[in-house]
Amino acid sequence: MWRCKECSESLSGRYELLKHFRLQHRHRQRYPCPHTNCPCTFKTWNALHIHLNRAHPKQNSQEQLELSIFSCHLCTSSDLPTERDYFVHIGTHFKSHETVPCMFVGCSFETNIYATFHSHKNRKHKPHTLKDFKPGVVRTTLVAQESSDNPVEYAHNQDDSAVEVHSACSSSDVDVTQNSSKVIEKNFAASLLKLEHFAHVPGTKIDEFLEELHYLSSATLPLSIDILEGVFQKHSPTTDKSVITEVATALCASNPLLKAIGKGGPLRTSYLRNQYYKDSFNVVEPIEYILDAKEKRSFQYVPVLKSLQQLFQRKDVVDKVVENHRVQQSNRGTGEQQTYKSSQDGSHFKENGFLSGDDLRILLTIYIDDFEICNPLGTSRKKHKLCGIYWTLSNLPPGSHSSLSSIYLAVLCKTDDVKKYGYDRVLHPLLQDMITLEQVGVFIPLLGRCLKGTIQVVAADNLGAHSIAGFNESFSGGYICRFCTATSTDIQTKEVKSGAFSLRTKELHDSHVKSAQENGASCFGVKRHCSITQSLDHFSIHTGYPPDIMHDIFEGLVPVELARCLALLISKKYFNLETLNKSILQFPYKWADKTNRPHVIPHTFSKRKTIGGNAHENWALLRLLPFIIGHLVPEGEIAWQILLDLKDIAELVVAPRQTDESIAYLEGKISEHRQKYQELFPDVRLLPKHHYLEHYPQLIRMFGPLVGLWTMRFEAKHSFF
Ligand SMILES: [Zn+2]
Ligand SMILES: [Zn+2]
Ligand SMILES: [Zn+2]
Ligand SMILES: [Zn+2]
Ligand SMILES: [Zn+2]
């Protein structure tokens, strides 16, 4: 017997097991070796085959197989087929608050808290083998059995799914056949779904392709008859030709792929496929909310709680989240020097008892951005601006990108409607879900309990953040900062570092909101309450809106300061614009810089006082500028030093890991940079973004490294639309 490590189904041979795994568990990212005692897993199917041939060559005579069965050491359950089933079962004892003694030999640890047990097991008994369990837990029997796999078959079938699919159908058991036919159909549908929604192949093109495929496959019937005739000739030459034709026709007609796309098949047309996806793939469907029935204004909301439940059905996600929580917990209180690697190292997180307590919480980052879906060159440009509100799970350690940290859509609304009806209305269904998440939580079957959670931060550009949070939406004068009460005049003469500005705190902000409500006028830049802070108990205005490094630095200060300094360097005749642009074009860009290669600088740049360009292009230009043009600038040139300082600052800000030392260094650099800039351009007013930058050192201590929020914004922009 060969037992699947994933679902514990038993199969007759190694090859059958591999086939089963490929078909039933193909969403797994790694394929485990089918041998019970082998812990190896593989990224690709091919690698697994190579491993099998090398590490477990087929034995000629008979194969010895160990069959293990687990018994609970607390109750009478004694037929738990796998280790995983055993631990799932142990979990039920924790759920009923029983004290569970550790099941490993020589260990006297006991606890009635699942999380404590889990971390004990990970610390003390990882890795372990079946021999490490206390006597009586594991029973192993040696089963001698005929090995039914055939190495020659492997060689032919390597990664050739078409062949496997056909052989899977040839099973004699009717039930199995029907079942596997359904599975093949579902896998096929999943492949088509990927084509349509990830590769953006239009549904009509897929219809055409499927029709063609169906036609071509049916056209192979005469060929099949020929082949069958050959086979029958060899083994039973008396068989009537009509029988052969019938066999071939039946085989052709029973092919689940052809059935699915043939007449009456469920995957035949775009419409039918969408039906099929909805029925088979747990689609979380958007709900339309009416803003104004008469004007026909509405927006779409994709229920976040439902999506969360779906996400937490994945074992890999749950494992990562639990593991991350455990690591965070064990890192707490270690006396070493403070390092900031994620938002959970920031003081805002640590000081929030709901987020950083012993209980595992679901942490969401909400991300808001406007984007255009139509040709931006068209005349009807404004009409198609959409506001997208996305969410992502911030429980995962930074850097664990890929499919785990996907960004999910929550709200889609026309930007004009957001302006007209306000964020309160548009955020309402989302906030209702968040209130439930804070107070009740969502049930996670894999953990057997509810997890509560909340919105950790809202990442938006400055305008977006100010309008949701209820601050002034103008940055040309007055109170321009959501972190402190500075005005655009104050920031010209005072530095954040000097302590001249009072930071906005919960108490201060509450009093501003109150006075704004009473007087009907904004108070210290506060126009109204923040609807998120208002609805949620554990979200607060002064901890919920991190800075936006993309617009502050890479699309803000960098293009503006580049324009000023380059204009000055050109006026000093170190080089001219033509030389500069030629060097920009001819520079040998490598790796990521190739895709983000900077554009040439437009002739209008000094009049427009910015070089334009997107964040990645500007970043590449600033970073590579010393290599592009540095040799033409004499030493000690102050405009050049300003650019180099800005480059250092940007580099420090995007660092994924910060220490108190690196933050102090950043603070010094920012102050130095400000001084030089004001010296060289005494008549130029500092921008609000200059002031925000001065907040960065303290903001990194509060929010953790800021770069995570940037990359996320960037990815979201490029996701679905
Ligand atoms: Zn299985
Ligand atoms: Zn192996
Ligand atoms: Zn038990
Ligand atoms: Zn133990
Ligand atoms: Zn400020």
Automatic annotation (TrEMBL):
SMART domains according to UniProt: ZnF_C2H2 (SM00355)
UniProt biased composition (Polar residues): 328-346
Gene: LOC117562389
Taxonomic lineage: Eukaryota, Metazoa, Chordata, Craniata, Vertebrata
Protein name (Swiss-Prot/TrEMBL): Uncharacterized protein LOC117562389 isoform X1
Domain C2H2-type: 2-32
Top-rank taxon, per record: Eukaryota
Keyword Glycoprotein: no
Keyword NADP: no
Disordered: annotated segments: 328-347
UniProt keywords, alphabetically: Metal-binding, Zinc, Zinc-finger
GO molecular function, one term: zinc ion binding
Organism: Gymnodraco acuticeps
Signal peptide limits: none
